[in-house]
Amino acid sequence: MQATVVYFSVSGKNEQMAKALDRDLREKGHNSVLVFLKPRRLVGVIGSVLLSVFSRPLELSEDYGAVEGDLLVLVGPVWASSINPVTRAFLNQLKDLGGMRAINLVCGFSPHPNVVRQINRKLKEHHAGKIVSRPVRLRDIDSYDKMMALSDELIKEVTQTSAESNA
Ligand SMILES: Cc1cc2nc3c(=O)[nH]c(=O)nc-3n(C[C@H](O)[C@H](O)[C@H](O)COP(=O)(O)O)c2cc1C
């Protein structure tokens, strides 16, 4: 399987999670490419909150929208109980996924299932296939082993065929 692990991170937690997934995919024999979503400029905390609350994207330094392969892994933080503006910009850039499977992880101080659902809806608008998603509470994945355990669970679930899941 060819995977693209796309992430945004400021203080490094989402980056660690994305890197754990990228490493786990490779260890499981898949090809994986890690992509950091780089905004053209950063805004302060107040700007970040305002953009998030008003559902505005932050301009990205390049077009990341043409994702290739069989699996898109998207990892990013919740900001102000909303999709952060960098992930939102990526979702706006995203081209047709043509049934590609997806893992969607949204990390925060507390779990935000509503944000996970919003991102899933956007992935479906872009014709994602099977989506495995989780709202992640950062204190629940505070070690490398916990990140790898979560990664293992997600990869197993997303690669399972419908016959296997019905068995
Ligand atoms: C501007 C801002 C707003 C945030 N709002 C929320 C929030 O509403 N709910 C929550 O659980 N965490 C919130 N957080 C915490 C972030 O989700 C957390 O810092 C992030 O997942 C850490 O990721 P990083 O280390 O990859 O940057 C917020 C953080 C920032 C910077």
Describe this structure in words.
- By secondary structure, the chain is an alpha/beta fold.
- It contains six helices and six strands, in the order βαβαββαβαβαα.
- Strands 1, 2, 3, 4, 5 and 6 form a six-stranded mixed sheet that branches.
- Strand 5, helix 4 and strand 6 (131-137) form a beta-alpha-beta unit.
- The protein is globular and about 50 Å long.
- The model has no long low-confidence stretch (mean pLDDT 96).
- Flavin mononucleotide (FMN) is lined by residues 9-15, 45, 48-49, 77-81, 107-110, 112, 138.
User: What ions, cofactors and ligands are bound?
Assistant: flavin mononucleotide
CATH level 1 name = Alpha Beta
Beta fraction: 15-25%
Cα end-to-end separation:
23 Å
Q: Uncertain spans, ≥5 residues at pLDDT below 50?
A: none
Query: Which fold name is given in CATH as the topology?
Result: Rossmann fold
User: CATH superfamily, please?
Assistant: Flavodoxin domain
One letter per element, helices H and strands E, the order comes to EHEHEEHEHEHH
Radius of gyration: 15 Å
Treating each run of at least 4 consecutive H or I residues as one helix, how many helices?
Answer: 6
The major pleated sheet works out as: 6 strands, mixed
Structural class: alpha/beta
Percent in helix: 40-55%
